[in-house]
């Protein structure tokens, strides 16, 4: 009994292992089990068949040695198609011939019938519901074993009533195993389908956010330009007034171009030239530049540079823009005033810029969404500023760590590789 259980467990492991390995290694969004990794899965299923035959087990009597080689053969034929079925048949047939013994010819004939007939069911099988697929593989398994039973009766004269109990156990054993295998495969296929659908949905959602943000931001300058052009068409303004309108129109066009440039920063993997720059100078320079704006809102800015000069590689203009976005957001998050402190630190080969405010703070969910298109904590915000900030920092091979709590302020930690 112990040997039977050991052999059965071994066979089950030989069958399940390739399927689990597929789930671990398959690329995201793969929907066609077996087909997407045809060669690899054929090799793995061939090994499963060989191992099942090498480690068989007995049921009820020592006269019948049994294994689960038909499970990977049937599954491979249904999910892989005729070519896979032919390869698996050759592997199983050669293995069975090498093992030899009584019933070899019946076994090879049975394998041939399964390998030749099952692939014709594949088109219909792939369109079935999960329940019908399970029923189909179970029926195929039972029919295959019935073929063996009646062939043995005809060739060896074994009375059906003497062997029916054994074959019923074999049918139940193999039937349950192939049903479990089919359910596992269908679960994997369903998970991959859901993942693929989710990936497409996220892409479409990202596109819709971009479209909404672009249309929202471009509408204002476009309406201004349209209004001034309509005024000049309707009224005969003086030359000086027309030049004033022209200047305003050009300002609105520049504003629209700046917006488009911001989106290009997010879309392009490289923007501008990456130069050696002093972190102390750049960070403290931005805080000095925004000092008057912060003071007008009752916010004091402080910069604590590193003790020695440290350098990183980046685009100065875009790095300043990223810093401006973070600092402005921090300043605007303190409606009652407060302090914002920037600290520059060095840890081994890394440079850390910490920017801490005393603002309203954010929830964990809001922190996780920072940098997403069209997400903003501001009433009229589009999330474009933080989206650009994240893109710029990532282009500089940096990372952004945000710690925040409602009512207790926010700390932005920017980590960059140090440039010697």
From TrEMBL:
The lineage of its organism: Bacteria, Bacillati, Bacillota, Bacilli, Bacillales. GO terms for molecular function: ATP binding; phosphorelay sensor kinase activity. Its main location: membrane. It is a multi-pass membrane protein. Residues 213-420 form the Histidine kinase domain. Its EC number is 2.7.13.3. This is histidine kinase. It catalyses: ATP + protein L-histidine = ADP + protein N-phospho-L-histidine. GO terms for cellular component: plasma membrane. InterPro entries: HATPase_C_sf, HATPase_dom, His_kinase_dom, HisK_dim/P_dom, HisK_dim/P_sf, Sensor_HK_Regulatory, Sig_transdc_His_kin-like_C, Sig_transdc_His_kinase_LytS_TM. The chain crosses the membrane at residues 12-29, 41-60, 72-98, 104-122, 134-157, 163-185. GO terms for biological process: cell wall organization. It comes from Planococcus halotolerans. It holds the Pfam family 5TM-5TMR_LYT.
């Amino acid at each position: 009994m112990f040997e039977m259980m050991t052999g059965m467990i071994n066979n089950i492991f030989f069958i399940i292992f390739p399927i689990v390995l597929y789930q671990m290694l398959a690329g995201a969004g793969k929907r066609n089990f077996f087909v997407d990794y045809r060669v690899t899965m054929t090799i793995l299923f061939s090994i499963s068949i060989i191992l099942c035959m090498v480690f068989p087990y007995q049921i009820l009597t020592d006269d019948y040695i049994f294994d689960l080689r038909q499970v990977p053969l049937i599954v491979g034929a249904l999910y892989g198609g005729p070519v896979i079925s032919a390869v698996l048949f050759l592997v199983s047939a050669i293995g069975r011939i090498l093992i030899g013994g009584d019933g070899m010819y019946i076994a090879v004939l049975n394998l041939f019938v399964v390998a030749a007939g099952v692939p014709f069911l594949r088109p219909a099988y792939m369109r079935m519901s999960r329940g019908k697929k399970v029923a189909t593989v179970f029926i195929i398994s039972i029919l295959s074993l019935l073929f063996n039973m009646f062939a043995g009766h005809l060739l060896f004269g074994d009375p059906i009533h003497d062997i029916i109990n054994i074959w019923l156990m074999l049918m139940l054993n193999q039937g349950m195993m192939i049903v479990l295998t089919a359910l596992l495969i269908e679960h994997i296929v369903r998970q991959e389908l859901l993942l693929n659908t989710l990936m497409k949905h996220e892409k479409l959602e990202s596109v819709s956010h971009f479209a909404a943000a672009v249309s929202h931001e471009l509408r204002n300058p476009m309406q201004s330009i349209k209004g001034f052009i309509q005024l000049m068409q309707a009224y005969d303004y003086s030359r000086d007034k027309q030049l004033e309108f022209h200047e305003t129109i050009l300002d609105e066009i520049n504003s629209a171009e700046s917006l488009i440039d911001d989106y290009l920063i997010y879309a392009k993997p490289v923007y501008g030239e990456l130069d050696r720059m002093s972190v102390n100078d750049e960070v403290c320079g931005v805080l000095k530049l925004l000092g008057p704006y912060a003071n007008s809102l009752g916010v004091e800015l402080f910069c604590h540079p590193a003790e020695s000069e440290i350098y990183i590689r980046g685009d100065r203009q875009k790095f300043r823009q990223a810093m401006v976005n973070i600092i402005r957001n921090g300043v605007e998050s303190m409606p009652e005033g407060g302090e914002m402190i920037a600290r520059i630190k060095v840890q081994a080969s890394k440079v850390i810029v910490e920017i801490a405010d005393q603002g309203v703070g954010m929830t964990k969910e809001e922190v996780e969404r920072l940098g997403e298109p069209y997400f903003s904590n501001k009433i009229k915000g589009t999330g474009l500023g933080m989206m650009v900030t994240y893109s710029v920092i990532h282009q500089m091979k940096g990372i952004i760590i945000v710690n925040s709590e409602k009512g207790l302020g926010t700390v932005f930690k920017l980590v960059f590789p140090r440039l010697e």
